[in-house]
Amino acid sequence: MPEPGRAVLQSIHVYPVKSLAGQAPDSVVVEPWGPAGDRRWMLVDAAGTVVTQRQQPRLALAGAEALSDGGIRLSAPGCEPLSLPVPGPADTIGVRLFGDKIEVVPASACAHEWFSTYLGTDVRLVHLDDPARRRAIDPRFARPGETVSLADGYPLLVTTTASLDALNSLIAQGDHPDEGPLPMDRFRPSLVVAGAEPWAEDDWLRIAVGGIPFRVVKPCGRCVVTTTDQLTAERGKEPLRTLARHRRVDSDLLFGQNLIPELTGVIRVGDPVHILE
Q1: Closest Cα to residue 142, out of 62, 265, 33?
Q2: Are 151 and 260 contacting, i.e. CB atoms less than 8 angstroms apart?
Q3: Phi-psi sector, 15: left (phi>0), alpha (psi -120 to 50), beta
Q4: What is the C-alpha separation between 132 and 202, in angstroms, rounded?
Q5: Residues paired with 214 in a beta bridge
Q6: Is residue 58 within 8 Å of residue 33, measured between CB atoms?
Q7: Which pLDDT score is estimated for 28?
Q8: Which residues contact 213 (CB under 8 A, 6 or more apart)?
């Protein structure tokens, strides 16, 4: 446990394939568009539209391990593990990730078949070959030239253990107390901070993790993925029911804050977290 009043980085989370289970390394290189190896791959349907746990909760049970060469090793219940290299130079295809149309490189046919068999529907795996120029961050919250990987909208998401404890206390007092307490994996953060006060992140404007500064640009509005048990793929009512009562701003149900890095470098579990503004 951190010393009272001392915030530290408790854990790091990287998701090589969007919406699949990820990894919790002890350290990670922060790149301009997010943690190295984070969400460089995703699934799309036959129309080229992103497929996530929103449509396919069973993606929570599939895992992706980043390999040293940039490739990935896939695993899922009932499927043989599959290792995939980074696609070589190839023509890109246009796909849709929420409101963005971006260019990506298709993975191999065996990857499409593996995921289609697992999900029981036609999907394709694609790779973001050039995160430095493929997808700009929403200009309302970003500086010119800032880009993001295949994350929902921003390079990193930070949550705090104190806010999760506070949320779980509210869930225990609500209509579905049997669904709590919820683990942090429901919120799929990049960084988890311990030692802060509950909801302190709402007031952060800039923080530094180790020696890397980040702008805190926008609260994270939560979706149905947070109601999905990441170990069983079953869905419930929480935390959205409680967030709607206690953490609603306009139409958004808020938990966590989106970050844009101001510098690149390595961050490590146990690094101090300083509130700069």
Answers
A1: 33
A2: no
A3: beta
A4: 29
A5: 207, 261
A6: no
A7: 98
A8: 206, 207, 261, 262, 263, 276
Reported in sequence order, the residue ranges of the chain that DSSP labels E, i.e. its strands, are: 8-12, 27-31, 34-35, 41-45, 50-51, 63-66, 72-76, 79-84, 93-97, 100-106, 123-127, 156-160, 191-194, 206-209, 212-221, 248-249, 252-261, 265-268, 273-275
Q: How far apart are CA 149 and CA 128, in angstroms?
A: 7
Residue 243 tokens read as: 């967030």
Q: Which structure tokens are listed for 170? A: 């509210």
pTM: 0.95
- The Cα 63–Cα 61 span in angstroms is 7
Provide the 3-class DSSP secondary structure of residue 115: helix
* Tens of pLDDT, residues 102-160: 999 999 999 999 999 999 999 999 999 999 999 999 999 999 999 999 999 999 999 99
